[in-house]
């Protein structure tokens, strides 16, 4: 049931906050709260005044492409993780700095929106909600984002937010906000298709090393471990030339040299999307380092795509080759087979990438998976000269593989999202232990 809060008649002031990260490890692999920044852009376009506080925005070390280490503070492990023999940290700005930002706000907000990332990062979301509610008493607070959607009931029960928003969609968010505080701002022009959205409000940052971009929403594939289809229904692509306009906007108006693509399906049907987009980038002479930290689809990699990746300026290439075991490939979504993988590496090398520049994600710790299977995959990838990168499986509620994960895990995955944390290897068993994982990682390091 939506409560309506009464406010004054000047344009409402909305405070949007990206919480810290609480985890055993975190690296700023071009992590920005893209969804929250889209919401900021839309609200601002409709006349709301928006303030952004990004608790991540405090780095201890930045690398040449704008990625880097977060400032971290060691904190107590939450009770369910007590037995894990690793340090647990809060990544991002110190708490005093947050309170200072609050006290420096010129005006009390009329509404507060908080986003959430990984499901197992919820402790810092709860903490932020508590601190924020203490500071701004009686200001309504909405929680949205990935945790709020995937673990909706958990968030409703325990987060302390007044409203927990389930799902995606800038128009839906706008409707909710308008219902809460000002109906008039929504009534004019409610068209918000993906091609009509304002750009995410990166300009709210005082300093920018990079931006993230998404050229699509959703994914046409249904990999058994992935929650993309729960977060976004269907698959929509932006007009490729409008994406080029956005890239040009960031590179010329904001002198951005690094852009990370957050898409799940960047390379899907490349002739209608990626190819015209990269040709546009090259034609307009845009000079920028592009990064694809989220896996690219191998099946779509042909000679032309590989060449455009290279000529267009992609510096970070990550391919999603979850497994070389063809049975498991089919079980987890049938996205790619071994021949397609070998062909993709050949094209990328021919285009100009060295083997070490081609990172290949290999999933480890799938329910019931044996260490031998991962070793085989590592060897298969190494043989092509590409660089294998292990990614530990994170079990996600409502995905097909979650039921199997629950059965095979020693942790209570159903009731405790902290156990979705890939770092604890949630589906470890005798056939694949934490020490097996460490051994594999060491062998990758040795080359
Ligand atoms: C880009 C991405 C990454 C990037 C950046 C991650 C980041 N933290 O920003 C990289 C490559 C680093 C990454 C890494 C990982 N990722 Co990732 N990632 C994604 C991806 C593909 C896209 C996120 C995105 O940009 N969405 C686009 C924006 C526009 O949408 P949005 O943020 O959801 O915002 C909308 C709504 O949520 C809502 N909303 C958002 N905030 C708010 C706030 C309010 C107030 C309201 C009302 C609404 C609202 O409105 C927004 C606009 O419509 C998602 C999958 C997906 N499709 O979402 C996976 C996903 C989040 N990742 C996932 C996983 C598993 C991982 C890894 C653990 C993989 C691994 N095994 O190593 C690592 C963890 C790394 C880490 N420690 O950060 C899982 C989630 C796991 C979990 N348990 O929560 C997802 C869902 C993919 C999956 N497998 O299903 N990831």
Write the layout of secondary structure elements.
Elements: E1 13-18, E2 21-23, H1 34-45, E3 49-54, E4 59-62, E5 68-70, E6 72-75, E7 88-91, H2 95-104, E8 111-114, H3 122-135, E9 141-143, H4 146-150, H5 152-158, E10 163-164, H6 170-181, H7 184-187, E11 211-213, E12 216-218, H8 228-231, E13 235-237, H9 240-253, E14 258-261, H10 274-283, E15 289-296, H11 303-312, E16 314-320, H12 326-331, H13 338-351, E17 358-364, H14 371-383, E18 387-392, H15 400-408, H16 434-446
Parallel strand pairs: 1-3, 1-8, 8-9, 9-10, 11-14, 14-15, 15-16, 16-17, 17-18
Antiparallel strand pairs: 2-7, 4-5, 6-7, 12-13
Helix pairs in contact: 1-6, 9-10, 10-11, 11-13
The structure holds cobalamin.
Can you offer a commentary on this structure?
- This protein is of the alpha/beta class and 447 residues long.
- It has 2 domains: 175 residues, Cobalamin-binding domain (Rossmann fold, 3-Layer(aba) Sandwich), CATH 3.40.50.280; 237 residues, Alpha-Beta Barrel (TIM Barrel), CATH 3.20.20.
- Helices cover 35% and strands 18% of the residues.
- The chain is globular and about 65 Å long.
- The N terminus is likely disordered.
- The site of cobalamin (B12) has 41 residues, from α1, β8, α4, α6 and α8.
């Amino acid at each position: 049931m939506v409560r309506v809060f009464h406010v004054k008649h000047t344009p409402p002031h909305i405070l949007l906050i990206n919480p810290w990260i609480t985890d055993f490890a975190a690296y700023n692999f071009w992590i920005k709260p893209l969804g929250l920044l889209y919401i900021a852009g839309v609200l601002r376009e409709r006349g709301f005044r928006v303030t952004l506080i990004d608790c991540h925005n405090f780095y201890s070390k930045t690398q040449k492409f704008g990625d880097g280490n977060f400032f971290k503070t060691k904190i107590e492990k939450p009770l369910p993780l007590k037995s894990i023999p690793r340090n647990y940290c809060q990544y991002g700005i110190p708490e005093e700095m947050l309170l200072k930002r609050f006290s420096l706000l010129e005006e009390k907000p009329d509404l507060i929106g908080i986003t959430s990332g990984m499901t197992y990062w919820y402790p810092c979301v709860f903490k932020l909600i508590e601190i924020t509610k203490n500071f701004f008493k009686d200001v309504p607070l909405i929680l949205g984002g990935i945790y709020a959607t995937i673990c909706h009931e958990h968030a409703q029960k325990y987060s302390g937010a007044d409203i927990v928003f389930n799902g995606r969609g800038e128009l839906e968010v706008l409707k909710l906000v308008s219902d809460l505080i000002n109906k008039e701002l929504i009534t004019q022009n409610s068209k918000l298709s993906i091609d009509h959205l304002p750009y995410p409000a990166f300009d709210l940052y005082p300093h920018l090393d990079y931006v993230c971009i998404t050229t699509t929403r959703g994914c046409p594939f249904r990999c058994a471990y992935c929650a993309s289809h729960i977060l976004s229904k269907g698959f929509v692509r932006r007009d490729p030339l409008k994406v080029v306009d956005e890239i040009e906007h960031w590179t010329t108006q904001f002198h951005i040299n690094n852009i990370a693509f957050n898409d799940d399906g960047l390379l899907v049907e490349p002739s209608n999307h990626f190819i015209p987009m990269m040709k546009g980038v090259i034609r307009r002479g845009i000079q920028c380092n592009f990064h694809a930290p989220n896996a690219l689809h191998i099946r779509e990699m042909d000679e032309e795509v590989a060449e455009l990746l290279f000529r267009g300026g992609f510096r970070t290439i990550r391919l999603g080759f979850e497994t070389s075991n063809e049975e498991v490939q089919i079980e987890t979504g049938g996205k790619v087979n071994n021949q397609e993988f070998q062909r993709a590496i050949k094209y990328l090398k021919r285009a100009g990438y060295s083997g070490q520049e081609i990172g290949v994600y290999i999933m480890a710790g799938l329910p019931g998976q044996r260490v031998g299977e991962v070793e085989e995959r590592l060897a298969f990838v190494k043989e092509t000269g590409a660089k294998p990168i292990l990614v530990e499986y994170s079990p996600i509620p409502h995905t097909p593989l979650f039921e199997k994960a629950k059965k095979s895990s020693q942790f209570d995955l159903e009731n405790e999202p902290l156990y979705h944390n890939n770092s604890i290897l949630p589906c470890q068993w005798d056939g694949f232990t934490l020490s097996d994982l460490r051994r594999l990682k060491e062998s990758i390091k040795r080359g």
